[in-house]
Amino acid sequence: xxxxxxxxxxxxxYSVVVEGHTSEMTYSRSSSxxxxxxxxxxxxxxxxxxxxxxxxxxxxxxxxxxxxxxxxLCPFMRAQxxxxxxxxxxxxx
Length: 93
Description:
Elements: E1 4-8, E2 11-18, E3 21-31, E4 34-41, H1 51-66, E5 69-72, H2 75-83
Parallel strand pairs: 4-5
Antiparallel strand pairs: 1-2, 2-3, 3-4
């Protein structure tokens, strides 16, 4: 899955296009060490295919590589962090 990053100022998003449909996870960067994930959207046509999960896992890996923490404000991302205790190293409550 080709997940892309777009950043403009303090706002960013991870996105992926599958079968002509775009899924995204958006965030705000509050500092060089902290992002707040505020929204995840997967079109109905792609639900149940693990795309939201892939976006979440990608954000976690990027945080690990970049040395920053994530505040999961988005309900989907928050739920994923509860399902994946191994992600707690980059989650800030």
